[in-house]
Each structure stands twice: as structure tokens, then as C-alpha cells.
Amino acid sequence: MHQSGKIRSGLLLSFKILTLCIYAWFCWLMVKITWQYRYFESDVAFLRIKQEYVGMLHYRIVFFVHVFSAIFVLLAGFTQFSKSLRTKYPSVHRKLGKIYVYVTLFLAAPSGFAIGVYANGGIGSRIAFCMLAVLWWYFTFMAMRTAIKKKFLLHRDFMIRSFSLALSAITLRAWKFAIVYYFQPKPMDVYRIVAWLGWVLNLLIAELIIINLHKKYKNQKT
Asked: Domain limits of the chain?
């Protein structure tokens, strides 16, 4: 029994390290994507297919705000689920949490909603991206509110939901790559699919994680 416990602990540690490495790799890719916009040019990368909108000053502003703020959200948000950071360095946990919350509430989510209005793929895609932004803002706000009220279990639940939506920056691109590689649909069809798939599946997984954590908590209490 003791040996099996060591094996489980070793496997869990290996899984955590692997997850961290994969996440770091995706974050690096996101940094590379963001770096393309460092000169705030309007004819690079994704903006090349948004030329009908880049002439509008407000679109360029919210686009660049969203692109650059997303990096801070991804980096700060991931640290919030480190148990060792919460227990050993609670002040660091709180400071990074504030960065995640404030950047999301005042920059990333509102700008995401604004550019969602102009999303490719028609009305369905626009509804999907705007819903993503609204839910992301709401879950983040509730995570902050429950933390202030010291309702830490609810705070954890809302942070899981919030960060699952923040991860759509990564999962949306991963799904887009996979769908194009294997099925080669029309470009606008891809946008219509990933606009929903990029975050709805994340949120469903988040709810399953929350349910599982609640079951564990109840078992510990009994």
C-alpha cells in the first residue's frame, strides 16, 4: 500500500511537471504571436484579414489592449492554482491574483467584448465571443468578490471558471490548427466552430473539476 502511494505521488508529480511544460510552451507561442504587434502596425498577422475595421481608431485600440493584456492574464492566472505558492507565499499569491483580476476586469474582458462585435464568421461567432467576454468578466468579478468576503471555496470555484475562459486564448488556436489540419473546411466555417468550441468545452471541463473537488471536500468532512 505504501509503495502504491509512492507510485501515485510520482505519477502525479510527473503529470504536474508535464502540464507546466506544455503550458509554458503555449505561453511562449502566445508571446511570439503578441510580439508581432510590438510596433502597433495595422497590417501584420491577424490584422491582415481585418482591414475593413483597422481604419477605425477604437478597433485598433481595443485590439492592441486585448492582445497585450492577455499575456499578463495567462501568466498571472496560472500561478493562482499553486498550493505551495498559496501556503508559503500568500502575499505573492494575492498580488498576482490582483494583477489577474484587474487586468481581466478593466482591460482583457472589456476589450475582448469590443472586438467580439467585429468577429469573423457572422452573427453566431460574434455572439460566441461576446458571451465569452461577459462570462469571463462575471466569473472574475465573482472570484474577487468571494475572496474579499473570505468565501474561499466559492472563490476557488469562480477562479477555475474564470481561468478556463482565459485559456480560450490558447485552446481556440489549438482547435483551429487541428480542424484546419485534419478537415480543411472553409475559413469562415472554422471561425464559426472555434468561436464556440474554443471556450464552451473549457467551461464544461471546469465544471467537472469543480464537481470533483466538491466531492473530495465532502469526503474529507465525513
From this structure: 50-221
